[in-house]
Amino acid sequence: MSEEQAILAGGCFWCTEAVFNDVIGVSKVESGYIGGETKNPTYKQICGGNTGHAEAIRVTYDSSAVSYGDLLDIFFATHDPTQLNRQGNDVGTQYRSAIFPLNEPQETEARAAIKRAAPDWPAPIVTTIEHAGNWYDAEDYHQEYWEGEGQRNPYCLAIIPPKLQKLRKSFANKVKS
Questions:
Q1: Alpha-carbon 129 to chain mean position
Q2: What is the DSSP letter of 9?
Q3: Which helix (DSSP H) or strand (DSSP E) does residue 136 occupy?
Q4: Number of Cβ atoms within 10 Å of the Cβ of 31
Q5: In terms of Cα–Cα distance, which of 88, 98, 96 is closest to 163?
Q6: Are 20 and 72 in contact (CB under 8 A)?
Q7: Whether residue 15 lies in the annotated active site
Q8: What's the rounded Cα separation, in Å, for the pair 152 and 59?
């Protein structure tokens, strides 16, 4: 087993966490904050939009079961990478679409994935590739949110099931049973 990590921001971390928890080879998905200047930011600070952080997920995966490129293809298929600083009703730089490569090969693959995804979207992809600075875990109640509170949250019930349906339809061979 070759364990690696990927850091992705695709809007609400509850929604992206739910998608990647269903991917074969993924052993852990953590919600957190990255890309800003404030040390140890809180959810309340992030929601204010003034820290520079994005809501993001850190995916731990077995690269012999799923590649970084596969994860990026899933990422681009399950959020709208053409919306600048927003995902649906979530608006602000904290909801930006961004990839935070952890090394040079990941950065190269991120650029390739943007090119692969571009024909699937009617508008230009605005996903940024950003330096992976300090990662801050989100508060405990944000972790595994869909599996707990999320399935009673009207927002999550509106957003997450369509993402999971798209995952299962477009990436059937990459989904846990």
A1: 13
A2: E
A3: strand 135-137
A4: 23
A5: 88
A6: no
A7: no
A8: 24
Backbone angles phi, psi at 59, to 5 degrees: -100, 125
pLDDT, position 89: 84
Element (H, E) at 170: helix 154-170
DSSP 94: G
CA proximity to 17, closest of 163, 169, 166: 163
For the chain, the first-to-last Cα distance in angstroms comes to 20
Residues 4-63: tens digit of each pLDDT: 999 999 999 999 999 999 999 999 999 999 999 999 999 999 999 899 999 999 999 999
Pairing mode, if any, of strands 54-62 and 26-34?
antiparallel
Burial 44-74 (b: 16+ CB within 10 A, else e): ebbeeeebbbbbbbbbebeeeebebebbbbb
Of the candidates 12, 15, 47, 156, the residue annotated as catalytic is 12
Structure token pair of residue 94: 């904290």
Residue carrying the six token digits 């800003």: 36
Q: What is the pLDDT of residues 106-129, one digit of tens each?
A: 999 999 999 999 999 999 999 999
The Cβ of residue 142 has, within 10 Å, a number of other Cβ atoms equal to: 19
Q: Which of 71-75, 146-150, 153-157 has the highest mean pLDDT?
A: 71-75
Which is it for strands 97-99 and 3-10: parallel, antiparallel or unpaired? antiparallel
